[in-house]
Amino acid sequence: MLTAHERSREDTAALMEGIGRRARDAARPLAIAGSDRKRAALTAMAEAILRRERTILEANEDDVANGSEAGLSGAFIDRLTLTQARIRDMADGVRAIAALPDPVGEVIAAWERPNGLKIERVRTPLGVVGVIYESRPNVTADAGALCLKAGNPVILRGGSDSLNSSSAIHVCLVEGLVEAGLPEHAIQLVPTADRAAVGEMLKGLSGNLDVLVPRGGKSLVARVQQDARVPVFAHLEGICHLYVDRSADLDMAARLAVNAKMRRTGVCGAAETLLVDRAAVATHLVPILSALDAAGCEIRASAEVMAAWPRASAATEADWRTEYLDAIISVRLVEGVGEAIDHIEKFSSHHTEAIVAEDPAVVERFFREIDSAILLHNASTQFADGGEFGMGAEIGIATGRMHARGPVGVEQLTSFKYRVRGSGQVRP
Amino acid sequence: MLTAHERSREDTAALMEGIGRRARDAARPLAIAGSDRKRAALTAMAEAILRRERTILEANEDDVANGSEAGLSGAFIDRLTLTQARIRDMADGVRAIAALPDPVGEVIAAWERPNGLKIERVRTPLGVVGVIYESRPNVTADAGALCLKAGNPVILRGGSDSLNSSSAIHVCLVEGLVEAGLPEHAIQLVPTADRAAVGEMLKGLSGNLDVLVPRGGKSLVARVQQDARVPVFAHLEGICHLYVDRSADLDMAARLAVNAKMRRTGVCGAAETLLVDRAAVATHLVPILSALDAAGCEIRASAEVMAAWPRASAATEADWRTEYLDAIISVRLVEGVGEAIDHIEKFSSHHTEAIVAEDPAVVERFFREIDSAILLHNASTQFADGGEFGMGAEIGIATGRMHARGPVGVEQLTSFKYRVRGSGQVRP
Fold first, then answer.
1. In this structure, what DSSP letter does residue B385 have?
2. What is d(CA B268, CA B279) in angstroms, rounded to the nearest whole number?
3. CB of A168 closer than 8 Å to CB of A60
4. Which residues of chain B have pLDDT under 50?
């Protein structure tokens, strides 16, 4: 394994250039590979992961030992650590992707023209995908499998602290590719810890990288979004809102607030701000805050809310812009759905917002006027997830409006082309 | 009207900054504007164009006079010149866009989850569109109307030689917006001939420009594709192929070859290379070349083809890479559909390719293995056009694989969001 000190910046540029070229070369054979062949490769990958469990665990032990020595945080080490159960989950994940329908070749739309031309829009692979992730070795398998399913060559750049684990997993993926007769460079892992490799990916590998998917903390995503010369599928943060309308069912509102905030506080779909209709203050506010409080949630509130719930601390403007990713929620009152929408359009990261209401006109307005990737009615924001959407797996959640939005599953990793069938038509 | 000499580069930067900000401000009111309101605005625009016909023609006379004085080419002047008929076509085009179904709010997909959540994917506007075009004043109306229909603010930057004409048309568009109660900055025309304005658009107007559409010659498109920091919907060139298989109907093949090449030689969907199956040389080659020759087409051929058609001039490697946009076609033989696909994958600009064949297996292979935006079977490549596809109107044709591909009509100018309806579901 080479380290940053062993490989000069120029070497890394040349290395990445070669990786890009090999990925592009793999694109066509992969695009025309049949569904059976891709499924066989994915199944073989899952089997290889299980068969090489011992090797993967040993490689991971090295990473964990190095990480502990380097003084990495407990949370970091936890994400880095693989167990037998996690490896089996990984293999199951790959099998689940194998079982998904092949998106490539799917007819998305079909129509006939008055002149008899039959037009179809069919899915094609998107191109070479680059995935830049932090030290979660399981992303190697997830992202590799998902890209393969959509017929896209992928270049994986995992966190340097998990390079041994990722490499051991990558060997299994390549084994599956080769066993099924697919190009071994369809899934490449950047084999160096040199950070210059990321810079090369951001520059687009001389046109051989079509889209970047950063997976990790805010600073990684921010850097990729700012510096990438190719399109990026990502969300910088999930400042998700829950709005409780005057027409809301009280029990439901309290239950949804607790789940949206507290089920897992560290996920991007966790609610960060609760907006309560001023007309519901007397009835809904205190019971909802009591439920949150009982669940262990800290409440940061506007002055009006504090009048009803004095235990809250005072929220500042900064709170409306903060993704806590913790057991903290900001709370303010709004003048009905109109002001809720204004607040959300001003402060949201356009990831996920939910409304609790029984009045259908209010729900429709919320759905129509808010431009976030996911809007939910009478359901928890924590459903913002490709698996929960039935996509089988996701490579991440995107908040951009270009190409992919919301959970990015295999479908969003495809493009399309038109097939037109005629019987000798010439254009007049 | 300000010229490049009157406005310094810094002024232009500030001007464009303001244009970007006003476009972004118009995005939300436009996104939530109802279909009726957008239709009313478009209808009012068409009426204003007809009502102001005289003013538009006078402004155009100024542009044409200036252009002639500046020694612009005849073809350029022809594209620049408006007539009463062209103005009426323009108004009809805007009316046709008014009559299209509103893409915004359309449910593209809907499904239900086992937990009862009902998920819908619905179309939303894409964002602020920038259109950079050469001196075809009618693009002002086409592009402005199309973007409005999809709910997108648009910034139009027309060729400096048509600024008077474009401004006169733009006045009509703004009149329509205002009459319907829509933000007047939903359609802005860059009011300066300073080329620095284009540079500012390429930089993305501080995040206030979401996508760029260049319309014009190859050098304009190349510059935008190379320098833009935002996504670009475009095609650099249309090196379109027609492949005649051994199973082709001979009469059909000759008719399609002549139409694909000669109907209009200057359009991007015109065929530039003819590939003939070696197994069809004795039967198909000479009749097809005779038909092309009779239609006035120059033939540049490989040695094998020249043996059968000595009047051809010799093709070089450069011919396979050339978009003639003229009455010239390059011709070579290939060893069946396999070699035709290899040739196309190597030399095509991935715009449009057609096959003439009766063997369904050959057609399927052509359709599966070639990754161009449009593939046609037994039909002319000149059908590569949004109108011919039934899209009503197009802002251009894209050869990229990100977001939009093929003819870019109103649908491709949208994004989407998810609406999820529940009944109190929390995530376990």
1. S
2. 30
3. yes
4. none
Residue B206 CB coordination number (10 Å): 12
pLDDT value of position B6:
57
> B9-233+408-419, superfamily in CATH?
Aldehyde Dehydrogenase; Chain A, domain 1 (3.40.605.10)
Q: How many CB atoms lie within 10 A of CB B3?
A: 11
Q: Where in chain A is the domain with CATH 3.40.309.10?
A: 240-388
In this structure, the number of other CB atoms found within 10 A of the CB of residue A70 comes to 9
Nearest to B42 by CA among B172, B163, B155: B172
- DSSP classification of residue B284: I
Query: In this structure, what DSSP letter does residue B236 have?
Result: S
A118 touches chain B (CB under 8 A): no
Give the confidence band of A3 by pLDDT, cuts at 50, 70, 90.
Answer: low
Instruction: Please check whether residue B323 is in contact with residue B237, taking contact to mean a CB–CB distance below 8 angstroms.
Output: yes
> How big is chain B by its Cα radius of gyration, in Å?
24
Instruction: Tell me the average pLDDT across A52-65.
Output: 97
Residue carrying the six token digits 């399913």:
A149
Q: Where in chain B is the domain with CATH 3.40.605.10?
A: 9-233+408-419
The total number of residues shown for chain A amounts to: 428
Region of A280 on the Ramachandran plot (φ > 0 left; ψ -120 to 50 alpha; else beta) = alpha
Distance CA A83, CA A86 (A): 5
Query: How far from chain centre, in Å, is Cα B403?
Result: 14
Asked whether the beta carbons of residue A424 and residue B371 sit closer than 8 angstroms, the reply is no
What span, in angstroms and rounded, lies between the C-alpha atoms of B274 and B324? 13
Instruction: Judge whether B262 and B295 are in contact, CB under 8 Å.
Output: yes
- Residue B172 in tokens: 């009509």
CB atoms closer than 10 angstroms to residue B404: 30
- ∠ CA B70-B73-B75, rounded to 5°: 140
- Alpha helix stretches (DSSP H) within B81-235: 84-99, 138-149, 163-179, 196-203, 218-227
pLDDT, tens only, A150-201: 999 999 999 999 999 999 999 999 999 999 999 999 999 999 989 999 999 9
Chain B neighbours among A 227-256 (CB < 8 Å)?
A: 229, 231, 249, 252, 255-256
DSSP E strand boundaries for A164-234: 187-189, 211-215
Q: Tally the residues of chain B.
A: 428
CATH number attached to the domain at B240-388: 3.40.309.10
Whether A5 has a pLDDT exceeding 70, the answer reads no
Cβ atoms of residues B252 and B354 within 8 Å: no
| Phi, psi at A108, each rounded to 5° | -85, -35
Assigned token pair, A405: 């939005």
The DSSP code sequence of B110-152 is EEE-TTS-EEEEEEEE---EEEEE-S-THHHHHHHHHHHHTT-
Mean pLDDT of A396-400: 95
User: Residue B83's CB: how many other CB atoms inside 10 A?
Assistant: 10
| Residue A110, min C-alpha distance to chain B (Å) | 11
Supply φ then ψ for residue B55, to 5 degrees. -60, -45
What average pLDDT does range A330-358 have in this prediction? 98
**Gap from B393 CA to chain A (nearest CA, Å):** 15
pLDDT > 90 fraction of chain A, expressed in percent and rounded:
93
- In this prediction, residue B21 carries a pLDDT of 98
Q: How confident is the model at residue A392 (pLDDT cuts 50, 70, 90)?
A: confident
What is the average pLDDT value for chain A, to the nearest integer? 95
Strand ranges for B219-373 from DSSP E: 240-244, 271-277, 298-301, 313-314, 328-334, 352-356
Whether chain A has a CB inside 8 Å of the CB on B376: the answer is: yes
Q: Does pLDDT of A393 surpass 90?
A: no
Q: Which residue has the tokens 């179809």?
A: A120
Q: How far is A89 from chain B (nearest CA, A)?
A: 18
Alpha helices in A180-333 (DSSP H): 196-203, 218-227, 250-262, 286-294, 303-308, 317-320
Which chain A residues contact residue B236 at CB under 8 A? none
Q: What is the DSSP letter of A102?
A: P
